[in-house]
Structures are given as structure tokens and as C-alpha cells.
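User: Study the chain.
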Amino acid sequence: MARPHIVTLTTDFGLVDHFAGALRGVLLDVFPEVRIVDITHAIQAYDVLDGALAISESYKYFPGGSVHMVVVDPGVGSERRPILRPWASITLWLLTMACSPWCTRSGERAGS
């Protein structure tokens, strides 16, 4: 898969703490050349349908090959794995587990 040029973020993180900024920092560390576009960080907490509606109304305005990262987790801290769903003209990431301080960039728990 080609490296993404645009990554959009749709989360239930809000903007009153460091989580949205930390997510942006991790993305820029891994892909320094990527352009990050915030769709919203105001999805209703744990409301997967709200996240799905937000991304369904916005992804179509982005060029093909864009990566859409949706982080809305109704079961924060569980052992569930992320879901990756590619389509022909876009790549859409539906993540069921948010980037957390106890995870490393590779997805393995720190200290394991």
C-alpha cells in the first residue's frame, strides 16, 4: 500500500486534554510528510453510529488514497483488535481501540 498523503481524524477525544494532539504527534512521527485534517474530535463519547455518520458525510470530499482514521471506542481498554477496511478509491480505518499511553507505535503494549 502506498504511503498516505492525507490522513483525516474523526474521534470522540474532545479538545480539552492531550489525546488528539498526541495522536497527531504519533502520525507525524511515523509519516512526517503526511497532511493531517481534523474532521472532528466532538463525536459523542463511545457513540459508534455518530462517528459513522460523521465520516460517511465527509470522506467523499477527499482525494482517492486518503486515509480516514475514526477512533470511537465503546469498550475502552478492552483487548479488541482494530478493524481495517479498504475500498477502491479510499482507505478507511475504523479503529475500535484508541491510541493509548500504554500502547507503543507497533501496537504492542509497552513493557510486554
User: Anything to note?
Assistant: The first helix runs from residue 19 to 30. The chain has one domain: 6-95. Helices lie at 19-30, 48-56. The beta strands are 6-11, 35-40, 67-71, 83-86, 91-95.
